[in-house]
Design goal:
Blueprint: E1 5-16, E2 19-25, E3 41-47, E4 69-75, E5 86-92, H1 98-105, E6 112-115, E7 129-136, H2 140-153, E8 157-165, H3 174-183, E9 188-194, H4 210-220, E10 228-234, H5 235-247, E11 255-260, E12 274-275, H6 283-288, E13 291-296, E14 299-304, H7 311-318, E15 335-340, E16 342-345, H8 353-357, E17 360-362, E18 366-368, E19 372-376
Parallel strand pairs: 7-8, 7-10, 8-9, 10-11, 13-19
Antiparallel strand pairs: 1-2, 1-6, 2-5, 3-4, 3-6, 12-16, 13-14, 15-17, 15-19, 16-18
Helix pairs in contact: 4-5
Length: 379
């Protein structure tokens, strides 16, 4: 089971007025543990009330800080490595965001931050072919790693990046994307759309909605020849791009997506009840007296659930080492295999159809519909 390690911040580079690139040093003895594939993310953790040096604040009252912790996942933006000397992520400040505000305004070189080893399935291992991405805002972060790794390691590959931002001033990683265009002029295609600023050349300003993408994509690319589409950014952009591609006949297996910023979004219809054979019908009554059995890091335990709890919340009361990050159904860190019983997922922005069909659910979003539920974090 992956555990957090306290790592030193090497640099904090300002990208825009509200975003930074955070570079974290990895000591030699941990580098193999922090190897990552292009497109993966890491979870960062701090405790509310910590000072910038990572120590508990003056009002903590004891050496062992008892305040609540904050975890967030951030995508790695550098080319992938099996033994990285550093980890680099892009962080955009969100109004009211506990960790993003801390990272953008307070973190400084020399500070420490708790870091989980990389995870995530929004990846593209380098291989020949023509690939494309539609990204919005900070959604550029994992796609930058994907494109840079692919183009550098696979000479028989091409990549088209279609990115949407509010304005030039708000665009993250401008220099890094320009560098890709300079290094791979014949294999890297860049299309930029600004929603709140007119450009001197290129596409007119405006949002990339379903209708616009349905018309734009065939004019830019041989849609039927694209081996993989990578969609990343706000919920509306990703859902709109996905609809456009389905209307254009793109096979579902070629579309990969990762959602950013869904805090206020309604429950996702993709997260419908995940059922196992023999599931009971009286879900409401069963949920009031449910118990969960969980296998985690080779050890199993069974515990009664409090009314209204998710599977993850119950497990965390007894096993503090249970993996999680966003608790919003986005990152997939808490993915478990449903061994038996019946649960309902309120949101699912992380699991693909084949994972759902194989019996995987998100523990943070799963609530029982039967009196007994068994999950496997190791499965």
């Amino acid at each position: 089971m992956s555990t957090f390690h306290a790592l030193r911040v090497a640099s904090v580079d300002r990208l825009t007025d509200d975003s930074v690139a955070l570079t974290i040093a990895v000591p030699p003895e941990l580098r193999s543990l922090y190897g990552y594939a292009p497109g993966q993310h890491i979870a960062l953790r701090r405790h509310r009330g910590e000072g910038a040096d990572g120590s508990a604040g003056a009002d903590s009252g004891s050496a062992a800080y008892t305040g609540s912790e904050v975890r967030r996942t951030y995508s790695l933006c550098a080319p992938s490595s099996d033994a990285p000397e550093t980890l680099r992520v892009g962080i955009r400040g969100i109004e009211g965001g506990d960790f993003s505000t801390y990272a953008v305004k307070e973190l400084a070189p020399g500070d420490t931050v708790d870091v989980l080893p990389p995870a995530g399935r929004f990846v593209l291992e380098p291989r020949p072919g023509h690939f494309a991405a539609v990204v919005g805002g900070s959604g550029i972060t994992p796609v930058l790693s994907i494109a840079a790794t692919l183009l550098a390691r696979e000479p028989e590959s091409r990549f088209c990046l279609i990115r949407s931002d509010r304005s030039t001033a708000s665009t993250m990683f401008l220099e890094e994307v320009a560098d890709l265009k300079d290094r791979f002029p014949h294999r890297f295609q860049l299309v930029t759309v600004l929603s709140r600023e007119e450009q001197q050349s290129g596409l007119p300003s405006g949002r990339l909605d379903t209708e616009r993408l349905r018309q734009l994509l065939p004019a830019l690319l041989p849609v039927e020849e694209i081996a993989g589409w990578y969609l990343c950014g706000p919920l509306g952009l990703v859902e709109g791009a996905s609809r456009a591609m389905r209307e254009l006949g793109v096979p579902r297996g070629r579309i990969h997506q990762e959602i950013f910023h869904v805090t206020d979004a309604p429950a996702a219809p993709a997260g419908e009840a995940a059922r196992a054979p023999g599931a009971g019908a009286d879900g409401a009554a069963a949920a009031r007296a449910a118990a969960v059995t969980a296998t985690l890091d080779g050890r199993s335990g069974s515990w009664p659930m409090n009314e209204g709890e998710s599977v993850l919340e119950t497990v965390l009361r007894h096993r503090a080492d249970a993996p999680f990050a966003c608790k919003g159904g986005v990152c997939g860190t808490c993915r478990v295999r449903l061994v038996s019983g019946d649960v309902h997922m309120e949101r699912n922005y992380a699991l693909e159809e084949d994972e759902l069909e194989a019996g995987y659910v998100l523990a943070c979003q799963s609530r029982p519909l039967t009196s007994a539920v068994e999950v496997d974090f190791d499965g």
